[in-house]
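Quick one: structure tokens for this chain, please?
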Amino acid sequence: MRNVIVLSLLLLNIHHVISAPKGVTASLSAKWSMTPFLLETSEFIGEDGNEKFWQFVDTVKELTVYKQGESVRSYYNLILKKAGQFLTDLQVNLLKFALALRSYSPAVQASQQIASDEPPPEACPAFVSIHGQHSCSTKDIKKLLKAAAGRPKPYLHKNDHTYPGVNKTDVPVVILYAEIGTKKFTSFHKVLSEKAGEGILVYVLRHFVADPKPQKMLLSGYGVELAIKSTEYKAVDDTKVKDSGANAEEDNNDEVQGFVFGKLKKSHPELQEQLVELRKHLLESTNDMVPLKVWEMQDLSFQAAARIMSVPKFDALKLMRDLSQNFPSKARSLTRVAVKPEMRKEIEENQKRLSESIGVHPGDGELFINGLHIDLDIHNPFSILDILRGEARVLEGLHNLGIKGEHQGKLLRLPVNAVDDSYALDIRHPAIMWINDVENDLVYRSWPTGVQELLRATFPGVIRQIRRNLFNLVLFLDPVREESVELVKLAELFYKHKIPLRIGFVFVVNTKDEIDGSSDAGVGFFRLLNYIADEYDLSQALMSIVSMYNKVDAGETLSVDAISAYLKRKFPKANAERILGVESEYDDKRKDGALFYKKSGLGALPLALFNGVPLSPDEMDPDELETIILQRIMDTTTTFQRAVFMGQLTEGSNVVDYLMEQANVVPRMNPLILSTDRKYLDFTAKPVVDDWEDTTMFSYFDSRDKTAVMAKRMKYFTNTDEDGMSAVTVWIAGDFEKVSGRKLLLSALKRVKASPGVRVGVIDNPSGKPSEDNTVLYRAIWASLLTQKNKAAAEFVQKLLREESSQLLQKGTKMKDLLMQGMDRDAFEKKYNTLEVDFIRSQQLFCRDVLKLSPGQQAVISNGRILGPFEEQEEFTVEDFQLLEKITLSGSAENVKAKVKLMGMKAKHASDLVMKVDALLTAAPKGEVRRDFHFVKDSHSVLRLSPRENEVFYDVVAVVDPLTREAQKMSPLLIVLSQVVNVRLQVFMNCRAKLSEMPLKSFYRFVLESDVNFLANDTVSPGPVARFMELPESPLLTLIMITPESWMVQAVRSPHDLDNIHLQEVSGIVTAEYELEHLLLEGHCFDLSTGQPPRGLQFTLGMSRDPLMYDTIVMANLGYFQLKANPGAWILKLRKGRSEEIYQVLTHDGTDSPADAGDVLVVLNSFHSKIIKVRVQKKVEKINEDLLSENSESNGIWDSIASITGGGSKKDDGEKEKEDVLNIFSVASGHLYERFLRIMMLSVLRHTKTPVKFWFLKNYLSPSFKETIAHMAEKYGFQYELVQYKWPRWLHQQTEKQRVIWGYKILFLDVLFPLAVDKIIFVDADQIVRADLKELRDFDLEGAPYGYTPFCDSRREMEGYRFWKSGYWASHLGHRKYHISALYVVDLKKFRKIAAGDRLRGQYQALSQDPNSLSNLDQDLPNNMIHQVVIKSLPQEWLWCETWCDDTSKVSAKTIDLCNNPKTKEPKLTAAARIVPEWVEYDNEIKRLLRQQEDTATQKHTPLPSQHQKADDRRDEL
């Protein structure tokens, strides 16, 4: 009862004015129509491999028949159910998230786009394209295949779905364009999959929806900000807006100041209306926007944290989201929260630890998933989904292998050594003849010996002379080859100049005993060398070699006669026969060099090793080698310095031993083992049965299940460590009836004997169908493994594998006669005689389907890494097994073993686990280092959520200050993450102390959902939207979209001024509809010959049917370029004209065509950024031409500019002279400035007879301006073009909208306009022109790139506001003037030639890091750069503005600018009407025009945008 009375009293105080709730909603739709969920699901599954994709397609091939009868929700659930057959529960949740994000929609749309480029035949639900010819019917396939060979094959993309048939290259390619799940698809699929299985054709599937739904698709994964604007100068348009009539559903379940309105409305339905009012009244009193005092702000961050930590932990994230995203209206309530001293202390202790360990400071926001750092400036929900998915594979693998809880994190964080591509060979080998020794030779005795010398400072480029063998060069040479001559001379040069380099030779000469020095020059050379070394010393021998080589003419090689002649001349007393002849005493060690060379497994001669690392063949050019070696010495010095500094290399160390004990040193080089392209088995499946005796059953398993069965049933030859475990498991697959197979297994068993911790399993892959006859040896091996003790089995099998044994068996000896002492004969014979061959058939299937071996081929598998198939002649020796073992152990097997050992399990089981975990971890893509987190204390400052038991979980750590932009973004992300996957979450409140200003000045929403939403009637909800309800009505707000890096969005529908949202003047909801207009293709381009970016080079992007859709110019900063695109396959070309005449594309990467293909093909099929690299080179005959040179009068570049734009006469190509056009550039944002802009345009047109072309920055124009501009153009006869450019990600970002717009005024002048535009005049929107701007265009800039008007000095009373007269500006400008940026003329030719744009961007980058510099960005930057980029001062009358100029000079003013007046702060609209009499006339004229246009639009009843959509698309082609 009491409640009712209180309520009634409160209600009495409220005036009975019922009004709709107010707020703002923003949505973002894709430019393409909605893509079917089924197709997106197929793309999601396709990421797990081609095999799964086609299995899924087979399962759903007629699924769309259910679409008619079912509701959308149940059809969606049916798709999930079908997908669930191929995915784990975790992956199904990720699939739902991906479908909610529409993450795979671009992939489906890309196929659709490729199909439309074909183009599809008329009225055809599905069609095939066979080498360019199309058909809608399966009947025509045969006919089209016949003639296909004569036509060129289509180009296939990396992510095309190719049916897994017989891999043949010489058969025709058939591309099917169809929608999976439809009847038409099924009929085509049946025919094509059969034919592909027989190897008649290659079958490729691309998605194609014949009649896509016109429904728009709303996207998510972006942020929306409503920033509070400063209202110092009133800049709001007073024109009234017709309301959209949209309404928002109310959220009644919230509690406002203790009242729960949902319950009240239920219990008091009769008070419905008054309750709405009460709620509104209470909200407005809480949404108190009165500014806080400084002392009230100091502790806000800690107070927010205290508030978050005080609520139940499941609500804490929601509260954090609410506080950060609505901070301006929550601030007042936070000031009353008390902060416990223990919380403050704990936060400070944790912060100290964080800043020491990972460099995170108070106020920073960081997110870590499983220890991986997720930088939210770079990552967006799409890339986070990819990370979750990549992690899922490893997490589920570990989970399936039975690794739970704490062990999961420990194994995940193991350092998996990334594959090293610079392996080194051990150079401590007796076959190397060292000709000097820096440590011991007398020549170097004056040098210091301490390794500390490395740390002494020297001039850059000086090689330190230290008496240690820090640098070692080994040359492998065949003395007779002519390349050897130069290399030996180079070695002598190093030696003579006392470079601190120890030089050794390995001479590879003929090893046959019967050859002697009289018949083979190499052998003679070697013997002579030995003789000189014995008689004198090695360095003398080097000199002799050089002088001997000096006698050899260029292009000749060393001959036997030359050697004996040299011997006679230099050593007349020596007995030539005794040195060179058959009985030579100087022949020892001749074979060593050749043997070492063969064993090392190095490539073709000549070869060099620097500290053991082989140089690549192209580095072996003697002209290059000298600089390469010196460079290597410099590079290695820094490595040594680090080692000395860290105490790894000390005075007592032997440097060569230190070098040879590094992880990358191997006993031999085998490219197969060391290659970086590695394939792994997946051991993580859990098959229902582990039966391999039943071959039919086994054949139905997928490859993961087959692998798991093999692992479970495998038997091993072991040589365990003292702890009984084996860290390396090797499987040998082969046919042991063949010599090569026996040799391979024998080498493996020899290695096992020599090395504890290795075990070997054997898999049979007979050459024919397995039978008793072709599996004799293998059955004996298997029987001995099953029945004998380990040692006996190994010895018996080694005996079996020797060639004499197999010869005996072939001659008819019985197996039992080969048995050895110490074996259990009866058990062996019994087993051997009863073994069936079925399980061998299963093994052969495993070899075929999983290892991809043909019958009889061999492979080696080491901890799941597959090496092979081997070629017939390829040998894999004992040394190779040693190398393989070393690489496997150093990768991660040793670390994994150490962790598994701690789990305490049986040895065989533990060894299996090491193999499986090692394969899983090393196969996972290498990310960055995983961080380990321990907070000092976590009771008051860390929000913890525990994961659900016995499920795969993600370890998520967030470090965040609850009142920062990071918190606005991270809190909704964490909420969604915890809905999508099972998380163990820790959120640390990283608060800043002593705040001096409001930490957040904006409202924010992050649009993200964890699953597809449905409405009550089971139809799909239109999609996610950003909703701002309960906003305070007093402040002026501006809406900013914060999207992923490569998205270009624009507002397409909103009657309101989104730049100035003032809710007091709006009834209902302000709706803003945006569209993702383009996905950007970004790139970097360099000229290969100069290494510099080719400034002024132009690229075009298009489809094969329309090659010129978009184009761009390369910047000098980083060679950056950006092109607008959308999902599909695009062709990138050099622009016709000078770009194409002078340059050619050489290579490119990141693209989707082979690196050397002339046409650069790029497929955009995701929401991720696509960044490519292109390298170009000038054509030989154009080597001296310059793209931007003066004589290149725009030949062929943009001549058709008028035809691309709206209006303008089309000129024929023969007519090359420039049209006389005035190019005017302007930017505007918000309805008021657009109103000014129209007036400025009108004033320009009234004062000139020259044709005018306006260029507007499209990024910030309102939808209404874009609709009306076409009418204006028609009425007043001007041309216009909307240009846009996305702020590059590497250029320092501005967060405030006004500053971004200022940036666009000045930073991108060289790339916004086509090269054909020579001069452009920038005119501010709020200017009124009173003269012919043609005068300004033709004004002589005297070689300066641009001209600005200086600020007036004539109005004396404003002197105190002229900041440029004192301080920094006065000293910086010297005698020059400070210029105003409201009007300027740019000579674009000169501007580009002196790279002014690049200089401005460079200076901007340097200055903008400091938030206090460049306060008027567009004006301060050119004035700051006045010494580097000269400004020509324009005559004063070109710009008059009342604030700074006196009234007498107004008469001669050519333009009048409505500058803000810092003294009076007069609103712009009042000032305009007062200062410029003609302004009101212009304003009324335009209002009449707009009204007229509105009337015609309403008469026609057609919405405006669609009328001008086409023209707008055409116009937007810069």
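The chain has a mean pLDDT of 84.
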